[in-house]
Specification:
binds iron/sulfur cluster, alpha/beta, five-stranded parallel β-sheet, about 40% helix
Length: about 375
Amino acid sequence: MDTETPIKEVIEEIREFGGEAVKYCYQCGKCDTVCPWNKVIDFSIRRLIREAAFGIPEIELEEVWRCTTCGKCPQECPRDVKQIDDVVAMRRIAAEYGVSSTLLKPVRSASASLTAEGNPFVQDRSKRADWSEGYNVKAFNEEMELLYFPCCYVSYDQRLMEIARATAGILNKAGVEFGILGTEENCCGESIRKTGNEDVFKTLARENIKTFIDHGVKRILVSSPHCYHTFKNEYPEFKANFDVIHISEYINELINEGRLKVNGNYSKKVAYHDPCYLGRHNGIYDPPRDILKSIPGLEFYELPESHEKSLCCGMGGGRIWVDTKMSERFSNLRLEQAIETGAEVLATSCPYCVDALEESRSGLNYEETILVKDITEILNELI
Ligand code: SF4
Ligand code: SF4
């Protein structure tokens, strides 16, 4: 009896926090065969789901924090076990009980900074729009066609700022009336939600929604598939339905309407990496490819694991804040796949992916072998 009560309580908590579907698992193991972790270590989401179904997940162990929420195993599962919801439920229990581990130190710091400054870097909110200085970017007003919402990484990280600047260059060239909200924006909250910090997510989301409504925002353009996913699929939980468009879709719109012309030549072999939150989570596969294929001189290469089978970069699910051992990084494998195809440039359309792939590029000494670019950076050179 003594041992049954806590187990029942844990099962009840997993259910309450959104992991009810663990009970449908029949241990077929299809999830483990596609999980990218099994390319680098021995990890079993099947085993974790089984422990959760019996109310005995060891929430203090790193296993609970491995899942990058890449979306690969849910699409294979014959019983709709909703593995991402299940691991997030376990993380929510850990957050509720203040489970501490060295691994989670940076997550705690990110969470505190998100609450205080609206970004995960312990950076001043006042610096959020600094990337735009000198790039002809105005403050948003409701007469404008769209609000450009660069994510926190694109706003603060020196390398990733180049994506925001390239985006501004493209929008200005096409004559788009756009603006930013700068210091009034918060992080979209996608990653912190996946770490189980539901309260922080809700605060960020509610503040953003209020800001968007107060400023009369109708259409939101985003660089990050993580912002896209959150605004499009999660903010409606708060009855907020904005028209959200990813930059890869919007550039196609501009090209198709004749508002943007690609003039330059890009004589390079370019492979495209599908970001999980753009592809698998939101079904956007063609727009980035269409842009790359429309560029004169560019030779387009598909990677071995592409479209629905894309190999995760390793940064989702809050893993962007966790220090992953060099030998365990999926982005190393991805970069090597690109090099093996003969590509000179690995293009993608997500700041998290660019960050991970750039780290692999320098960590593995491939600086002279291959470039990593967001599609906006390639296009901005050619218009
Ligand atoms: S694929 Fe689904 S049913 Fe099969 S072991 Fe994994 S979670 Fe369970
Ligand atoms: S969502 Fe991706 S990382 Fe998470 S368990 Fe499934 S396959 Fe592995």
